[in-house]
Fold:
Amino acid sequence: MLRPVKFLWSLVVASWPIIVAHVHESLLRLRRYEFAEIISDLSSFSFRWIMRCVQLLVFAILLLSSASAIYGGFYYLIMPAKVLQRPLFFDYGVHSDFAQLSAESPYVSSNRVHLPIAQLELTTGENGRDQWHYADAVEVSETKSLPLTHLTKYDVVLDFEFAQTPVNEHIGMFMVRTQALGEGKTPLATSARPTFVRTSHWLVDLVAQFVWIVPTLTLGYDAALTQHRTLVVMNGFEERRVRAVEEIYVELSHPRVQIVSASVSILAQLSGLRYLMYHWFLTTAIVATLNIALVQVFWCFVLYLYITFPTLHGVDVIPTDDDQEQLLPDEPKEHDSADDMLDEDDDDGPQVYESELILPPTPKESVRQRRAPPTQVPVS
Structure:
């Protein structure tokens, strides 16, 4: 009795390592399979979400691009074109006398100190000469063209790009004097506006130079630090033919101001929505672009519903009360009496007389009628 038990026990003990190895291998395979399934699920889930994010990103880019294009077209349609936008070039003259002065001297326009000035003729047209003249010996036949419209109000705007250098920062506040000259250089309007170049922190300058060093090295872009200034020197100037503007004269009150570029713009005076779109360009552009994008999203959603909404083919639709009334035949009108009907018949056509046909009375069923005797045929 004990020998079979011992044999079975010895068999179990001998095969136990193999059983353990098989179980361990099965657990490892199960873990690898579960891990592979988890990775597969996560990869498919992440791939789907990445594709959705890419689709949303592409849709948002196309939406904002189209909205920006629509706003840009609307902006150029509603905004009046600039009547004049021309560059300004300042004449600094010779400053040898100023450099030899030991004491400070008032900065006035004289033979000793030459202040930077710019004179721009407007009679040469919108794309005319930029501050140059023909020599006296050259014969030129030119016709004056006045760019401004009679009895229209304009704003004269000066745009400066000042170099951010220690020289400009040391100058501090200086004046920009502007004159609108008429025929024979007669002053029509004069203005003076103060401006200066701000002193920036060294950390801001270092970061700005580090940011602009890439386009400077790769594209050859001039990344010198500048400060932009916009001065409305004249607002609401009314143009008239009897005193038409022919020249713009600009003068700086300091001879050492360093200017990178300058330009003058003459605009028709704006009001209402056009004023906001021009003077608050970034704010109005963002608000208008977002509103246009929302309208586009709404119509895209309506189009999506129209395309994907199932159509009803072969389905009986219960007609409404109005449809039933239209489908029913016209009922005859009720007449108050027979005379009304006769009157209507008389109106429609000639009068017709009716007669009653008198027939003999029908015999009763109980009365037997005689039949005619059959005809006898003689036999020959």
In short: The first strand starts at residue 84 and ends at 87.
